[in-house]
């Protein structure tokens, strides 16, 4: 029966981890022949298959026009196989089966950006993770089937670049107008890592010699005009290659490494073996066209995809439930790489800020799931902050506990055991345990449970005994789909400070973990426990969860004075920032008086010194949590306007408290040559400009406009433009027009132009209508959609008024055209249930009304979860 024709009997589409079964057939090799034409693409595939277990021979395929199928040379008639919308099934197939298929596909009309698709006028690219390969040909498209791929690509000569994974074996003409190339990838890989690229692109070339002496040709493909913007990515690539050799002992294994940039891409980038495909936003980096933050992101994503070569490609996932095996570990690795690129403290600040702004809210709401879920409907919905960022934190906790040497022994063991295999999270933890000699098995609990643990701590000083005791309790919010929650192992990095001198005390306690990391680390893995320090001469100030040693919500009875003390005396920038954030949360969420905070930031001992020695850290210490983050900390009766007003009032008070400080910074600080220092100065000066406006200093607009016109640096130009536009300065309109004319052919810069206008605090439905009907707005390009939607969502007051229609409309429009992106955008509304009435019921009604209209698994799974609170 054709399921699609009968929507009434909707089968339960949930897939369960517990149902995992080995594939009945493996594929020794696959020969692919992909012939691209303007109006169709022919795909011929030859699979050499071998039976592994009992069962039918199953090939997955979606939207494929089957022309013919042969098994061991004999064409099958229609009654010799079963074909439905998802798979082709052959009963009683021989144990050795050579399966040859010919299908026709339509990349030219593929709007989902999955499988093979047209990504602009002269470019065809693939995106096969997680389940895109089945849209190219019939195949056991699952990560535990590894095979050797040989690929022939053929196209018109007006598309000169023909790429696929591995080594170029052969190239030549295919008739007068057409040409072809044959590539072979010697390493066995799952189909999600297959890639090919057919198009008209320019290339930047370089090379690298590995620690083993292998000479690797490096190539970055992009549009001709963008080649000058590829140098930062190229340097980052070489740096990543060296870093993985030095820190993990992992050299590269092929003779070439290619990166292709496209502006039509659903996510950031993709680690296809030897042929990464990147969103232009994660490759192109240039001070004139992209911001400092974007430059940092390019370097980290280049590293991320490169690091996947070992953590993801050489060792891959057994099934998609194990996604965080490769993503959590690779994010941890790219974060560590970035900590070596700039100030480690600032990198940690930025990573924790992302975790708290995205993962914590996700984990406290209706979309909460474990880093390794045990069921899903649509795997694309699980490329989440929880899988990536919380997954990275689990690895960081184990690394913190082990210290550098033992962690390295553990990863060495992992690569030794599992190279060339498709494995599970259990395998990873087992290898770390065996290699390090430390039993880490209790960390598996973290992978299997949802929710951010609450860590309650209390400190008590006993003057007579000269002891200080910290007692801990942990708890998790109940979750309907994951009962039986257990206590998790929480490494608590901590320090005690002398309250008088500000000196850090030596910790005397027997229950601290011994590792080669200097910090005192206490491993708390019960429901409740305590630790006592001896020889403590006076009531100390404790600092807990240093460097954010575990992804938990800490509730410690710090006084505001303690936090202000830590802001001044903590020995590293991350811990100073953490203290400032805790103080700010007290002000916003517990109505504490702001004066202690204002005194601390305006103290001559803090910022005035730091702005010269570490301007980047100084800029971060001025962070005030976003309205969106504050909202995520409120579980009921949330009033967006009230939060906005409180936050504005505090920022105005900070502006006033520092009097002449801001203008001084703006006029006297100059960006030095060193990039991260310069980045810090630019960040500080942008803050200073907006503080001057808050002080009512009219000269700020002239200074901003002057900067806007004369700078060649995008962070400065955008900082100035924001100040003008968001404050409706007289120069705002001129500046927007000037920006448009200057950058209209630069998509990434134009994304910023759209974003700034959508993020205007007083944007309204007309603003969004103007932007989304602009000739340069394009619903086929996810980056452009995200720039407007992301800008709008920067102001929750707007998200929860006219934004509701915007996001619901997009989810509906993209439901079939691009369900991956549609499902993600809808998540902007996932905390609807926290709103105060009557807004809560109004948004709920709109979400309910969307429900009967959606067709994709992606959007409907998200919507069902969102409404299940
Ligand atoms: N594996 C990619 C990464 O994290 C993620 C990715 C890229 C992806 N494109 C995708 C996931 C499309 C789902 C769909 O590096
Ligand atoms: Zn990844």
TrEMBL record:
InterPro entries, per database record: Aminopeptidase_N-like_N (IPR045357), Aminopeptidase_N-like_N_sf (IPR042097), PepN_Ig-like_sf (IPR038438), Peptidase_M1 (IPR001930), Peptidase_M1_dom (IPR014782), Peptidase_M1_pepN (IPR012779), Peptidase_M1_pepN_C (IPR024601), Peptidase_M1_pepN_C_sf (IPR037144)
Span of domain Peptidase M1 membrane alanine aminopeptidase: 233-444
Transferase among keywords: no
Record Pfam families: DUF3458, DUF3458_C, Peptidase_M1, Peptidase_M1_N
Catalytic activity: Release of an N-terminal amino acid, Xaa-|-Yaa- from a peptide, amide or arylamide. Xaa is preferably Ala, but may be most amino acids including Pro (slow action). When a terminal hydrophobic residue is followed by a prolyl residue, the two may be released as an intact Xaa-Pro dipeptide
Reported cofactor(s): Zn(2+)
Domain of life: Bacteria
Record keywords, A-Z: Aminopeptidase, Hydrolase, Metal-binding, Metalloprotease, Protease, Zinc
Record domain Peptidase M1 alanyl aminopeptidase C-terminal: where: 560-867
Broadest EC class assigned to this enzyme: hydrolase
CDD domains documented for this protein: M1_APN (cd09600)
Gene Ontology molecular-function annotations: alanyl aminopeptidase activity; metallopeptidase activity; zinc ion binding
Domain named Peptidase M1 alanyl aminopeptidase Ig-like fold: residues: 451-556
The EC number(s) this enzyme carries: 3.4.11.2
Gene Ontology terms describing biological process: proteolysis
SUPFAM superfamilies for the chain: Leukotriene A4 hydrolase N-terminal domain (SSF63737), Metalloproteases ('zincins'), catalytic domain (SSF55486)
Ranges of residues in domain Aminopeptidase N-like N-terminal: 52-193
Family in the record: Belongs to the peptidase M1 family.
Protein name, per record: Aminopeptidase N
Species per Swiss-Prot/TrEMBL record: Acinetobacter tianfuensis
